Amino acid sequence: MKNTRTHNAFLVMLSVGIRQFLNLILQFVSRIIFIRILGAEYLGLNGLFSNVLSLLSLSELGIGSAISFYLYQPLADNDTERIKSLMQFYKNCYRAVGFTMIGIGVCIMPFLHLLVNLEQNVPENLYLVYMLYLLNTACSYFMYAYKQILPAANQEQYKVEKINIIFLCCNCITDVIVLVIFKSYILYLLIKLILVFVSNIVISIMVNRNYPYIKEESVKRMSREEIGSFFRSIKDAAVFRLGSTLYNSTDNILISVMLGTTIVGYYSNYFMIISMFTSLIGLFVRAFTAGIGNLMVEESKDFQYRSFLQIDFMVFTFVSICTVCLFQLFNSFIMLWTGSILQDYILSQTVVAFLCISFYFDGTMQIMNIFREAGGFFRIGRSRQVAGGLCNIILSVFLGKIWGLEGIFASTAVSKGFISVFPFVITISRYVFGKGNYDLLKIYLKHALATVMTIVVVWYTCKKIHMTTVWNFFLEILLTLIISIAAILIFFHSSSEMKALFERMKKIRNQKP
């Protein structure tokens, strides 16, 4: 790698941060127009079908994660022949995934009426709407989406992000035009499908230009032993992915069946915002992925562990501040954003609390999962993840009948914490870094306790201005950010991780491009 891991990670984070910030703003604009023109029923369908297709994306089986792991070494060695072989194999796998996804998706169609639970029917044909969602999700697997993994594995994701930013703006502009002028949900979905096609083609051209050797026709086929090893890694990654999907892609389905599809629409605004923050954390973490893969290949266990603690602290800092802000500001924002349309769009603070717990777990686990995958430890945590996902569904059905929406989200938070997260931290400490069982868990619980204490202080400081006026909302934002950042500095000012973070920031600032 020509540049340092830190410098490349910074470039990726910067480009990702710009894209995600724009995505946040533009999504709010298009969403408010969507709600005003089409209403909660369509918003509910959007959330429901998105969850259904998230389940279908299981057919990807974690192939991307496994391929990334196998790409790190040849990229470090500049072994173009090996890279070509892996990319050709990846292309064939993704085509098979696309056909599988469409096949399973079509088989689900006869059962759509069991999932959709609307008080009043929408005029559009539900099967046509569902098919457009299905094609939108599956088409990338037939096109050139597989090529994006190469710049990502080589710490050059920022080149892809430039294109993503352009199409993000195009997407929002076309959404607004179609909704305002044509008021057509079908046309809205068709335009999104077309933009997915075009963006994949443009990214493919960019990758071909930067890695011209992948266009060469002479490609050495992978041996049976290599393919066997690859699919063993996929099997382990797929089981882990299954558990994650059972956690994160079933809530909307359960809410639709038990409480009504319109309730999914009310929750979908919260889900959209949480997803944006989770994606931002994920993209932030993935900025380090290629560097971590290179680190796991070239550095000692002790260096890996020290690097993990430094990156983990950065991720925790960001996740902690986001969690405090979400808990405090969620309902104030939703009230100002959509509350004027319908008060039902505002969910209880208890629901917000459970959503924030799940968000914190998901955010803080991402960096551990990256080290797990980059080191090839695909077996770690897979069984517990599936067990926790199944427990979440069973518990959600039970508590959902007793406690409604609060019960469904409480089930997710409890299952994640006690079945998946805490045992996962222990296992990572022991097997990935060769440390004591509870070394990382102590650090994790210390971080979590600091976050909870910050939430309590912020809540009682801002309670009187919570969900009041626009000006009080801006004051609430200011106070929440100041207290959150001050809390991190107070709790961890003497830690080696914070000192190392400041040192890295100085190096980045002083580094010449």
Notable features of this structure?
513 residues, 20 helices, globular, mainly alpha, 81% helix, 0% strand
How much of the sequence lies in strands comes to under 5%
Largest sheet: none
Terminal-residue CA separation: 14 Å
Number of strands: 0
**Helical/strand content category:** mainly alpha
Helices and strands, in order, run as HHHHHHHHHHHHHHHHHHHH
Oligomeric form: single chain
Concise description?
By secondary structure, this protein is mainly α. The chain has 20 helices and no strands. The chain has helices at residues 5-37, 40-56, 63-77, 80-108, 112-115, 126-142, 149-153, 157-182, 185-210, 224-248, 251-258, 261-286, 289-298, 301-337, 349-374, 382-403, 405-432, 439-462, 470-492, 496-510.
